[in-house]
């Protein structure tokens, strides 16, 4: 099956094959996003899927279509985590030996989960691209079947089943917002949504979201063919792909209405916002559609569904993202305040902060900082604030009191 042959019929066949394996994940109304957009907005909770992401769908459908002889040879895949878990789980269910190449430094929870599903895990290579090359060499050497994370029609069709579920749960949907890495997820969903919409006589808009730090699709769409870009660091590792797939690209080119990019601060704010407002854990790649809304990049005109594509996040990364998200949202600020070295100065600053309702989180007071004279001290104080306007009030109050605060982080 080539990319051009991925049709609504193939996606419906994938949905039937996934019955009893992939869960029909819930759709929840998101009131805070509805208020921002001015239209009814819903979240498709694929972060609650088995293995914690949508990748289970494509992996299971791909493996289910292997011949008995191919299954006997085993499978090999490369992934930073979600595809790894999807392939490992599907292989375990189907009794197939699986070898997964994961990059050095892959998130420990994803690595342990992949091993827990019975796969042989090889950690090697600095990037997913290097792991893909190693997996291809393994396939050539051993005869194992290579299971690409996105660039295969069966994988695309499996991911497209999410679109069918959205149509069932939100039949009047007009806009669907989807994260993009290599394009397998959005390609399958766009085929399902566009073809089913056309069958009903209406057009459903499909909008993709990439992390600006590693966004291959805007450049490729502008060029008219897949191009390779330079990889830059992003917290959204699940969608950090440097080149669209040869199978996925023409489908995205044909069916997807727009692709927007989001910055790291918006990704961090999105993870924090979803956690606070819905009590759901979502990884940065999975929160990309929410980041696009928070960043003001999308203005839909009718019922809208945002896909939370995965929830597999390292707790240590979550800790850093929460801290960064608080700063990016204007809710946490660290100040450096020079003070004369005499009694009562620390209490004076504390009183000023209390008067403007800034909650002190941490204080460091020292006389030994470089550049200080014998009569000087410096105070570093971290405070919880209610947003950018409140931060301005805090700074103004300190300056009116004759102090000279420098913002270290805000």
Automatic annotation (TrEMBL):
Q: Does the keyword Transmembrane helix apply?
A: no
What positions does the domain ACT occupy? 334-410
Q: Which UniProt keywords apply?
A: Allosteric enzyme, Lyase, Pyridoxal phosphate
Span-the-membrane segments of this chain are: none
Q: What is this protein called?
A: L-threonine dehydratase catabolic TdcB
Q: Name the InterPro entries for this protein.
A: ACT_dom, ACT_ThrD-II-like, Ser/Thr_Dehydratase, Ser/Thr_deHydtase_PyrdxlP-BS, Thr_deHydtase_catblc, TrpB-like_PALP, TrpB-like_PALP_sf
The question of whether Nucleotide-binding is a record keyword is answered with no
Subunit structure, as described in the record: In the native structure, TdcB is in a dimeric form, whereas in the TdcB-AMP complex, it exists in a tetrameric form (dimer of dimers).
Family matches, as SUPFAM superfamilies: Tryptophan synthase beta subunit-like PLP-dependent enzymes
Q: Cofactors per UniProt?
A: pyridoxal 5'-phosphate
What CDD domains does the annotation carry?
ACT_ThrD-II-like, Thr-dehyd
**PROSITE patterns linked to this entry:** ACT, DEHYDRATASE_SER_THR
Q: What is its EC number?
A: 4.3.1.19
* Signal sequence range: none
Provide the organism lineage as a comma list.
Bacteria, Bacillati, Actinomycetota, Actinomycetes, Micrococcales
Q: Name one GO molecular function term.
A: threonine deaminase activity
Q: In which pathway does it act?
A: Amino-acid degradation; L-threonine degradation via propanoate pathway; propanoate from L-threonine: step 1/4
Protein family according to the UniProt entry? Belongs to the serine/threonine dehydratase family.
């Amino acid at each position: 099956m080539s990319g051009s042959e991925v049709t609504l019929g193939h996606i419906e066949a994938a949905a039937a094959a996934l019955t009893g394996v992939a869960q029909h994940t819930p759709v929840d109304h998101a009131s805070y996003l509805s208020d921002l957009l001015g239209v009814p907005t819903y979240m498709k909770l694929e972060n609650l899927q088995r293995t914690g992401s949508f990748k289970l769908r494509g992996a299971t459908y791909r493996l289910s279509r292997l011949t008995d002889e191919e299954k006997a040879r085993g499978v090999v895949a490369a992934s930073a985590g979600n595809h790894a878990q999807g392939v490992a789980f599907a292989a375990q269910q189907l009794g197939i030996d699986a070898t997964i190449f994961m990059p050095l430094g892959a998130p420990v929870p994803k690595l342990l989960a992949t091993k827990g599903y019975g796969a042989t895990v090889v950690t090697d290579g600095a990037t997913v691209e290097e792991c893909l090359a190693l997996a291809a060499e393994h396939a050539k050497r051993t005869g194992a079947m290579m299971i690409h994370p996105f660039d295969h029609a069966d994988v695309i069709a499996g991911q497209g089943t999410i679109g069918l579920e959205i149509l069932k749960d939100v039949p009047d949907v007009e806009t669907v917002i989807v994260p993009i890495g290599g394009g397998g997820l959005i390609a399958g969903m766009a085929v399902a949504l566009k073809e089913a919409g056309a069958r009903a006589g209406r057009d459903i808009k499909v909008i993709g979201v990439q992390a600006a730090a590693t966004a291959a699709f805007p450049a490729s769409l502008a060029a008219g063919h897949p191009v390779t870009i330079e990889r830059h660091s992003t917290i959204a590792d699940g969608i950090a792909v440097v080149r669209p797939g040869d199978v996925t690209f023409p489908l995205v080119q044909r069916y997807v209405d727009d692709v927007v990019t989001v910055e790291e601060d918006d990704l961090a704010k999105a993870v924090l916002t979803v956690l606070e407002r819905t009590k759901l854990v979502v990884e940065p790649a999975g929160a990309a559609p929410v980041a696009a809304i928070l960043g003001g990049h999308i203005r839909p005109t009718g019922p809208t569904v945002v896909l939370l594509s995965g929830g597999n996040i390292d707790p240590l990364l979550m800790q850093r993202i929460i801290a960064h998200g608080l700063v990016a949202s204007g809710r946490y600020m660290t100040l450096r305040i020079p003070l004369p070295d005499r009694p009562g100065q620390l209490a004076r600053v504390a009183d000023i902060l209390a008067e403007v309702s800034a909650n002190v989180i941490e204080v460091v007071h020292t006389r030994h900082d470089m550049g200080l004279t014998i009569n000087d001290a410096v105070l570093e104080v971290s405070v919880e604030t209610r947003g950018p306007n409140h931060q301005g009030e805090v700074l103004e109050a300190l300056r009116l009191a004759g102090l000279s605060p420098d913002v270290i982080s805000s």
